[in-house]
């Protein structure tokens, strides 16, 4: 199983290197041939063959230090911190529950054959991510993820009381919480990529993912601390639902910040036009 799990990503990496084109924005930024850009865009729209493309806002290559300065500039700081905290909290919830699943299954008197099934379904965020991708194309991505995390908070908070009430209800809550949380988590890098300009996109997304990884450590340690102090499962999962509520708040703050920023840009462009 471990060999198979290692071989499949290696095969995927080779296929991506061969088949996956560069971002059109990246190609334009680096002065690629128009024919290369047209070959990519014609797969979306045949009219691409009849046009030349350029970036509306010209950018330039930045050093690592310059990229970090832009990520932390006043223009992006609030969004950067919101994304970092959101990704941190998401991994805190996921690994806090995932690493303590054997104990939870024992507490719920779950039959041994159901454990691997529920564990697998808990990480079933891929299906939700496909739906989220469509929703984020048509609606405000901040709100879409906020809705996911809001319902994640509700499901996580109810896991504790459900442990000794109903095995069926417990399993449903676990699967719903995992699917919703993983859907939101897998959508965050896409949201971050849309938030940052092309020149610093990789820097912004990578730092968000890197800082967020500390949440995985914090989630496991937090659960261990609470269990060792003999805190009841209902209280533990009520506490663990707080990071999901924080994620919702972060998305709403980011949306307010972006709305204010875009409004200020529009005002400035109107003044320039006058």
From TrEMBL:
Keyword Metal-binding found: no
Segments crossing the lipid bilayer: 76-97, 117-136, 143-163, 169-193, 205-227, 233-253
Keyword annotations of the record: Membrane, Transmembrane, Transmembrane helix
Cited SUPFAM superfamilies: MFS general substrate transporter
GO MF annotation terms: carboxylic acid transmembrane transporter activity
Signal peptide extent: none
Mode of membrane association: Multi-pass membrane protein
Gene Ontology CC: plasma membrane
Major location category of this protein: membrane
Places the protein is found: Membrane
Family annotation (Pfam families): MFS_1 (PF07690)
Domain (Major facilitator superfamily (MFS) profile) ranges: 1-259
Protein name: Major facilitator superfamily (MFS) profile domain-containing protein
């Amino acid at each position: 199983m471990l060999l198979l799990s290692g071989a499949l990503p290696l095969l995927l990496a080779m296929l991506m290197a061969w088949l996956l084109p560069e971002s059109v924005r990246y190609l334009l930024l680096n002065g690629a041939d128009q024919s290369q850009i047209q070959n990519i865009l014609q797969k979306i729209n045949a009219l691409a063959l009849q046009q030349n493309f350029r970036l509306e806002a010209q950018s330039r290559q930045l050093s690592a230090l310059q990229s970090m300065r832009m990520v932390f500039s006043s223009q992006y700081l609030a969004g950067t911190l919101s994304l970092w905290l959101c990704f941190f909290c998401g991994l805190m919830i996921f690994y806090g529950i995932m690493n303590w699943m054997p104990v939870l299954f024992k507490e719920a008197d779950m039959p041994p054959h159901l454990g691997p099934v529920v564990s697998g379904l808990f990480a079933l965020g891929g299906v939700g991510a496909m739906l989220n991708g469509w929703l984020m194309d048509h609606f405000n991505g901040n709100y879409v993820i906020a809705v996911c995390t809001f319902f994640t908070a509700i499901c996580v908070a109810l896991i504790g009381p459900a442990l000794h009430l109903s095995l069926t209800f417990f399993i449903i809550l676990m699967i719903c919480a995992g699917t919703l949380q993983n859907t939101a988590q897998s959508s965050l890098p896409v949201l971050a990529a849309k938030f940052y300009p092309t020149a610093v996109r990789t820097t912004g997304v990578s730092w968000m993912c890197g800082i967020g990884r500390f949440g995985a450590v914090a989630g496991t340690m937090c659960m261990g601390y609470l269990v060792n102090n003999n805190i009841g499962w209902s209280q533990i999962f009520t506490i663990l639902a707080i990071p999901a509520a924080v994620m919702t708040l972060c998305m709403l703050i980011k949306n307010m910040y972006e709305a204010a920023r875009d409004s200020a840009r529009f005002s400035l462009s109107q003044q320039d036009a006058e």
